[in-house]
Amino acid sequence: MLTLHRVPDSDSLVVEGARIAAIGPYEELYAAYGERARVREWDGVLGPGRHEPDAVALLEHAYWPDPREAGELGTGPLTGDALAALGMTDTRWGASARRGVQRLLASGTTTLAGPVGRPSVRLAVERSGLKYAAGPRALAVGRPADFAVFADDGTCLVTVLDGRMVHRRRRPGA
């Protein structure tokens, strides 16, 4: 399936499957692909996404509480003595990593420094589609369709990995 991602005042891009098929002005891309492509319009800035150099620390050395634990543990990541007091199991590490990965995707992260060593954390990263890299990867035709769109205030509107939308910010009041 073809998807044309349009952003105002910037180049747009066409995604075919997991790859970027074309980058350029919206009008040109629409003329070439519009009849066959689904058009997604974003009010923001489209770019390669964030690179998270502290991924190992965020996912292997911090516990991301379950929302049902918010009353007892809060909503932010736990480290140090608070983490040591939890008596972490491999299952709990995996669940924490999945929640941490969701936070990374919601921030527009598309690449991580790594790799992580803990098997349950590694599995959460692999299933998410996030990739290990030395830094952010440039958008180019033929490259994986890994990108994010950021609002003017810097918050992430959408994160796409391998052409698949893995995060979309909810509309206020929705």
How would you describe this protein?
This protein is α/β, with parallel strands linked by helices and 174 residues long. The protein has 2 domains: 2-49 and 136-168, Urease, subunit C, domain 1, CATH 2.30.40; 50-132, no CATH class. The protein is 29% helix and 28% strand. It has 6 helices and 11 strands. The chain has helices at 26-33, 55-60, 70-73, 80-84, 90-106, 119-128; strands at residues 2-6, 12-16, 19-24, 37-41, 45-47, 50-52, 109-112, 131-132, 147-150, 156-161, 164-168. It has a 4-stranded mixed β-sheet, covered by helices on one side. A 4-stranded antiparallel β-sheet has the order 5-9-10-11, with helices on one face. Strands 6-7-8 form a 3-stranded parallel β-sheet. The chain starts with a strand and ends in a 6-residue tail after the last strand. The mean pLDDT is 93.
Key features of this structure:
28% strand, alpha/beta, single chain, Urease, subunit C, domain 1, 174 residues, 6 helices, four-stranded antiparallel sheet, 2 domains, four-stranded mixed sheet
Q: How many domains?
A: 2
**Sequence of strands across the biggest β-sheet:** 3-2-1-4
Indicate the structural class.
alpha/beta
The unreliable regions are none
Seen as an oligomer or otherwise, the chain set is single chain
How many DSSP-defined strands? 11
Portion of residues within helices:
25-40%
> What's the rounded overall pLDDT mean?
93
Shape: elongated
